[in-house]
Task: inverse folding
């Protein structure tokens, strides 16, 4: 898995070629590849908000805010599931849009393309672990996530002609629409999760440090 991550991140055009012959069954892509990588963001957030906490200074007094353990654990599990599902959704949208952009409709190839294109975003999630220590680190985390999302789109764009035979001049629009549809659907789900569990995640104040 380590070699695949390095290959798809650093030399995507070469890495897509051997992927063609590999199995694209969703079950084999989800475990362990997607499950492990998608968990990086929730685990990072869990460590940042529950273990490290966020320090705030008010009137010269420093207080550490930490999220409740159980609610944060539940949220981490649900968020992991949502991020794994995002990869499946991307594969679904890639396949649904394929005929309209003269690409082959091959579900297994579409899911392989989606799972590996999600790699940069999933890996970028690890940057959440220090996001609560300082505003600058939170801003860095956001930038890393944006960079991961953009690189993931580029991987999808590069892989469409190789795995699904999409014409070069149509791969750009195909990839943008698939990513946009996935982003909207995933955003709705994650916002619903936070709407339901947000009240349980309200920070608790510890004694002044």
Result:
């Amino acid at each position: 898995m380590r070699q695949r991550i390095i290959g798809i991140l650093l030399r995507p055009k070469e890495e897509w070629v051997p992927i063609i012959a590999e199995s694209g069954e969703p079950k084999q892509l989800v475990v362990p590849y997607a499950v492990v990588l998608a968990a990086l963001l929730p685990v990072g957030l869990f460590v940042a908000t529950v273990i490290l906490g966020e320090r705030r200074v008010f009137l010269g007094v420093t207080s550490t805010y930490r999220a409740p353990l159980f609610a944060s654990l539940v949220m981490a599990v649900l968020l992991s599931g949502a991020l794994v599902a995002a990869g499946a959704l991307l594969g679904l949208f890639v396949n649904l849009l394929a005929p309209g952009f003269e690409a082959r409709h091959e579900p297994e190839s579409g899911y392989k393309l989606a799972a590996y294109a999600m790699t940069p975003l999933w890996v970028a999630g690890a940057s959440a672990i220090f996001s609560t220590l300082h505003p600058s680190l939170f801003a860095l985390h956001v930038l890393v996530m944006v960079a991961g999302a953009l690189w993931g789109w580029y991987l999808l764009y590069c892989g469409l002609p190789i795995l699904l035979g999409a014409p070069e001049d149509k791969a750009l629009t195909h990839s943008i629409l698939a990513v946009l549809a996935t982003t909207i659907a995933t955003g709705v789900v994650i916002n619903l999760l936070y709407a339901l569990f947000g009240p349980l995640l309200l920070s608790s104040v510890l004694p002044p440090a």
In short: Residues 168-197 form the longest helix (30 residues).
